[in-house]
Amino acid sequence: MNAPTAFPASRSAAATDIDRLAIDTIRTLSMDGVEAAKSGHPGTPMALAPVAFTVWKDFLRYDPTDPLWPNRDRFVLSCGHASMLLYSLIHLAGIRRPASAGGTAAVSLEDIKKFRQLDSVCAGHPEHHMTSGIETTTGPLGQGCGNSVGMAIASRWLAARYNQPGQTLFDFDTYVLCSDGDLMEGVATEAASLAGHLKLANLCWLYDDNSITIEGETDLAFTENVELKFQGLGWHVERVADANDTAALKRALTAFKNEQEKPTLIIVKSQIGFGAPKKAGSHEAHGAPLGPDEIKGAKAAYGWPVDAQFLVPAEVPAHFAATLGARGQQAHAAWKTTLGGLTKQHPAVAAELANFLAGSLPAGWEKAIPTFPADAKGVASRVSSGKVLSAISPNVPWLIGGSADLAPSTMTLVAGAGDFGPGSYGGRNFHFGIREHAMASACNGMALSGLRPFCATFFVFLDYLKPALRLSAIGNLGVIYVLTHDSIGLGEDGPTHQPIEQLASARAVPGLSVFRPADANEVAEMWRVVMQRPDRPAVLVLSRQNLPTLDRTQLGSASGVAKGAYILQDVPQGTPDCILIGTGSELSLCLDAAAQLKESGVHARVVSMPSWDLFQEQDAAYRESVLPAKVTARVACEAACGFGWEKWLGTRGRFIGMTGFGASGPAPALYKHFGITAEGVADAAKQSIAAG
Ligand SMILES: Cc1ncc(C[n+]2csc(CCOP(=O)(O)OP(=O)(O)O)c2C)c(N)n1
Fold first, then answer.
1. Which of 127, 294, 436, 586 is an active site residue?
2. How far is the CA of 54 from the centre of ligand 1 (A)?
3. What is the value of pTM for the model shown?
4. In 3-state terms, the chain is what percent helix, strand and coil (to 5)?
């Protein structure tokens, strides 16, 4: 082993030799990984190695043999471009895959050598679902910060729900490494504001104040006083003048541990590309391999063998095992003993917790889902959704969430469930404030902590939370998005509030379920489906206006929602002349159009299609049974843009919907104005038949 013997005099004397060896191993592994990949971000891992190392060695409570231990501290790398830092840490700490996945090394040295290659567990940016030890998928700046607030919330909620006097099962902390880019993003400020309000003292962000971004120095665009800003947001702020000063880092982290009231921000001055002779301190160290000369120069500065690559001195993993590993395993063992005590002394609590930990729904959870009697006057789908949510809620305690200041409109307040607020963490109704983006990002963090979160706003504000929604889908996180006021049907608020392109944009997201239910019973069935898919995010698109509750004794059963689309009303016999497809509020227009067509001797099948993606998942035979290939005369009706409907309509089909933005006015007037009427559907059906 060619371990270095000398360290540059400029280096802080605070670290012991073995600590320095570990820090420089993180640095050199990260540099070598990026160099081998010929792409990546070496400079920030080189700078932040001492910071991350100090957290992991001295503070993080983490059992590398069980990365899913529920009470582990969370470590989030929000500046995901510095991913090699995390891969180096996971490798050196010896994190294993869960036993269910074989228990082998999560990141081997061979994996690191394949950084950024197809099928590598060391992807360009950290991907939670791919690699053990990664708490959340990061890369879009600011999201890790948002997620961390959800994790800190989860820790507090789980503690309030399950801890008993003398039996602490949940008290995990969340540590975040974040960069200038993270803190410039609005989502991080929204999230920080929420965390400060909620007094999440179990949350610590370590801000890499290196004054460098991609275009150059931060004073090009970022001159705010971060310390003052965070103090104003209700945070405790610490400063560390040199990222290499591990003793100072320890002091700041100890201050975080001692803080009981506020989240903590530790502002750490670092030098990007630390040690690289020419590129240190320059944006050139940010996003490209350093090149052989700079690598050799940096290794020489560390006192490292300049030609060694991927060198891991044996003492380093042993050092991680003796510190992080030993501490984590001991804490984990103690936790298991506590859990055993809970089972004896509080069997009912322990039984509920066992369900939660297993990720399964409690037996009989769906028994209270209501059935709605036929009613021509009907009920808005936001209202029926609220009723279903309230019915399910008592049976699934970890179904928790709230809205961005719109609960009276989104109908997401669960009566009797209590509020989650500063210092009072047992409630299940959340008030996220008017912070849609952070709300969704925090919900991702809550989902990553095992909870089933829902969040709500107007559907048009999907665009305000879209980046987090996309990450729900990438990460298979079952966040439930309750999005109401789903079309021009909301009426007078006008085009700024009337969604047009949001359905198409949500349907375009892979791995996301999108539902637009047509009546109260479809709403109930939608919730039944969604609850059973905890690994799939869902967007529930709900109306402001009343929708008639259809008479299911005369029409197809709403249980067809589980298949995405189903025949609501068929022709008496033989092949239909045409098929009318509707979603949400427009399904009733299709039924009316079918009645009108019948009078002219045209036999139309009416299909309800609340979820394209679920229908697409069905086998070809089922899809053919609903939309037979030979019936090419088709009309779809939806009060939104028609983008994408060709898939179901084919070349002969017609679409009745919106072609531009809406307008302010009463909903019935708007439907007429934009030609979204039963007559319009019937005419389009005749045209489609004639085109054959
Ligand atoms: C939302 C988002 N916008 C843009 C980017 C592209 N990007 C990656 S890193 C970066 C900024 C780098 O500066 P900083 O955050 O200070 O990181 P450092 O250079 O210190 O590593 C940008 C703009 C991104 N990843 N996410």
1. 436
2. 24
3. 0.97
4. 45, 15, 40
